[in-house]
């Protein structure tokens, strides 16, 4: 094990409780004396929230440190870790449900789901990147069949393979569009609501289109149909990044025959009669980057073989993403800092639960800035 100094023996850690409203408690938790192979111990400078940080706890009635997106400074690395060393600036996707999560002074992540961040990038911005970027990457390049941008011929082969992104103003929809652009995928038909200014900036070719979902889903479906006919688009690939009010049913009807629609809420079944028979619905579970499998209760799973390679893909994806960050070709999502450091987590999660994200992520300053 390589470490900068004496290893910290304990950390302040937030436990999130599935109450209404969401509440948290902060306690001191001992850190392991020795890191496991592949582990990276990180002094957390910023953490970001995701909807599942409260959703899963409410669904299962459990309490835990549910934060999984973080950025900070490497303190020590376990055996076999070669990409990171103490004092490196990093962001990481902590394994969901495991100890030493992001809402803490120190967290433990795994080498293959961590990435270096440039000196010019703030920890706050960096903390918005790992979990949702990887969800979007797994979706496009493992489930939807597009070539990953680092694969030979990706730009040519992904061209003229259009993509429909419903709920493009979610961080998931926006990251999917940023990745699609870097992989040469297009044209992109993006559908969003009131927070669309940021995502519109990535729809830079005249072939791309933006539509507003607030016209109502049925009108929207007609508008997409008209657009695809006028532009001779064959929309076979789609993402429904929100899965609300049976949105996936209408979105599945916007795709052409033989299409594939990615969905993200594990709480739905996606078996409505109105879904066209020739549209394949596939659920993305970002946890496969660590677990290499779906959980038995999850809907619309891909084949076991398709999932086994996800941890290796995640490793390649983060190495590539770190290069994109270095070159200034990729960036974080708009964010709002919730004051109070670890004490602010309950406020952020309640605002997420109340649908107040409005095109940005909620971030907490946990390191030195949080104490200012
Ligand atoms: N399965 C997985 O592994 C996985 C991983 C990551 C995320 N997810 C899921 O993916 C979903 C998106 O996550 P996120 O973190 O990207 O969300 P988010 O950024 O917090 O989403 C907030 C945005 O959702 C948009 N929105 C709300 N209701 C909408 C509707 N009915 N139709 C279209 N857009 C709507 C709003 O946009 P406007 O302001 O423009 O209206 C709002 O800005 C969540 O359900 C999350 O749990 C799943």
Task: Describe the overall structure.
The protein has helices spanning 52-60, 123-127, 130-143, 154-158, 171-182, 197-200, 217-231, 247-254, 288-291, 304-308, 310-326, 345-353, 368-371; strands at 2-3, 10-17, 23-30, 39-48, 69-77, 89-93, 106-110, 114-116, 163-166, 188-192, 209-212, 237-240, 260-263, 280-283, 335-338, 361-365. Helix 7 packs parallel to helix 8. Strands 1, 4, 5, 6, 7, 8, 15 and 16 form an eight-stranded mixed sheet that branches. It has a six-stranded parallel sheet with strand order 11-10-9-12-13-14, sandwiched between helices. The protein folds into two domains: 2-129 and 332-371, Quinone Oxidoreductase, Chain A, domain 1, CATH 3.90.180; 132-308, NAD(P)-binding Rossmann-like Domain (Rossmann fold, 3-Layer(aba) Sandwich), CATH 3.40.50. The longest helix has 17 residues, at 310-326. 47% of the residues are buried. The mean pLDDT is 95. It has 372 residues and is α/β, with parallel strands linked by helices. Strand 12 (237-240), helix 8 and strand 13 form a beta-alpha-beta unit. The chain has 13 helices and 16 strands. Residues 50-52, 132, 135, 167, 169-172, 192-196, 213, 241-244, 264-265, 284-286, 357-359 line the site of NADP nicotinamide-adenine-dinucleotide phosphate.
């Amino acid at each position: 094990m390589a470490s900068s100094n004496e290893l910290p023996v304990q950390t302040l850690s937030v436990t999130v409780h599935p109450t209404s409203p969401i509440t948290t408690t902060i306690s001191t938790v001992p850190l392991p004396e020795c890191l496991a192979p592949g582990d990276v111990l990180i002094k957390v400078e910023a953490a970001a929230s995701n909807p599942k940080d409260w959703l899963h706890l409410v669904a299962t009635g459990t309490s835990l440190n549910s934060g999984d997106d973080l950025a900070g400074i490497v303190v020590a690395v376990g055996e076999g870790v070669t990409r990171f060393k103490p004092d490196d600036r990093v962001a990481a996707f902590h394994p969901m449900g495991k100890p030493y999560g992001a809402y803490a002074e120190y967290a433990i992540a795994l080498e293959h789901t961590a990435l270096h961040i440039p000196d010019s990038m703030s920890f706050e911005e960096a903390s918005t990147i790992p979990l949702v970027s990887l969800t979007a990457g797994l979706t496009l390049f493992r489930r939807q069949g597009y070539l990953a941008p680092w694969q030979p011929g990706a730009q040519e082969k992904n061209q003229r393979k259009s993509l429909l992104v419903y709920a493009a103003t979610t961080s998931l929809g926006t990251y999917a569009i940023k990745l699609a652009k870097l992989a040469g995928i297009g044209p992109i038909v993006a559908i969003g609501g009131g927070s669309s200014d940021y995502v519109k900036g990535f729809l830079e070719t005249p072939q791309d289109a933006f539509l507003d979902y607030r016209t109502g889903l049925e009108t929207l479906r007609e508008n997409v149909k008209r657009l695809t006919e006028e532009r001779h688009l064959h929309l076979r690939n789609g993402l429904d990044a929100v899965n609300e009010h049976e949105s996936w049913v209408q979105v599945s009807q916007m795709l052409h025959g033989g299409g594939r629609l990615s969905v993200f809420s594990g709480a739905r079944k996606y078996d409505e009669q109105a879904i066209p028979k020739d549209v394949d619905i596939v659920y993305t579970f970002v946890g496969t980057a660590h677990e290499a499998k779906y959980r038995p209760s999850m809907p619309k799973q891909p084949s076991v073989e398709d999932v086994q390679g996800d941890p290796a893909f995640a490793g390649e994806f983060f190495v590539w993403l770190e290069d994109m960050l270095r070159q200034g070709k990729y960036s974080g999502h708009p964010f709002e800092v919730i004051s109070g450091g670890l004490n602010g987590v309950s406020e952020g999660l309640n605002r997420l639960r109340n649908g107040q994200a409005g095109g940005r992520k909620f971030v907490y300053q946990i390191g030195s800035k949080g104490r200012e």
